[in-house]
Specification:
single chain, 200 residues, mainly alpha, 2 domains, 7 helices, 2 strands, 5% strand
């Protein structure tokens, strides 16, 4: 309203927002979780579209970024899980008979319709508890995927593309805690190449 000659709010310094370090799933914990998931009808759940609740009920919407479609880069573990899901769902389709709604979903309810997200979350909570991982959230599995790849020496750009991040900086900022160990390994590699290992 031009009642003061300058914007006094510009002089204020807001507190820095601290980045909270997320607990990462260890490979041993991942194996425990996989053993608990084995045989469950949701063991190999993945989503290509996002299911959201709207005023009209549950609706499929595109994922947040255009870079997220599932690519045909599945390794043996994922392929076997998806094959088992196809067999499991074929049995459910036969059991449902005429009640089955064929929506072409990889993961459907027991009558072929979209699964209620709350039911998926509830089932995951039961399974994580059985694995002794009460702290684990469903989205943490994505975090574990990226962390495992970086720990194994995969390039940051490769991980960025698999996660669907728009920039490599986003990936580096999110998973930077994994990179110092990689930097130490690289420095050790130079020492070995130059014959200086153990002299520092």
């Amino acid at each position: 309203m031009d009642l003061v000659p300058r914007n006094v709010a510009k002089a204020a310094k807001p507190p820095a927002l601290g980045r909270t370090e997320r607990r990462a799933l260890t490979p041993e914990e991942a194996k425990t979780l996989l053993s608990v998931l084995t045989g469950d009808r949701l063991e190999s759940l993945f989503v290509r579209q996002t299911l959201q609740r709207t005023d009209h009920g549950l609706e499929f919407v595109p994922p947040k970024t255009h870079r997220r479609p599932v690519r045909c880069r599945c390794r043996l573990l994922a392929v076997r899980a998806l094959e088992a899901q196809r067999v499991r769902q074929a049995k459910e389709r036969l059991a449902a008979g005429e009640v089955w709604s064929d929506l072409g979903l990889v993961f459907a309810s027991t009558i072929g319709t979209a699964m209620e997200p709350r039911n998926v979350n509830r089932r995951f909570e039961q399974l994580r508890a059985a694995a002794g991982l009460d702290w684990l959230h469903l989205h943490d599995l994505r975090h574990a995927f990226a962390t495992f790849l970086l720990d194994q020496g995969e390039e940051l750009r490769t991980v960025m593309e698999l996660l669907g991040h728009s920039t490599i900086r986003m990936t580096a900022d999110t998973y930077g805690h994994v990179l110092p160990a990689r930097a130490r390994q690289a420095a050790s590699a130079i020492d070995r190449i130059l014959g200086q290992e153990g002299t520092a």
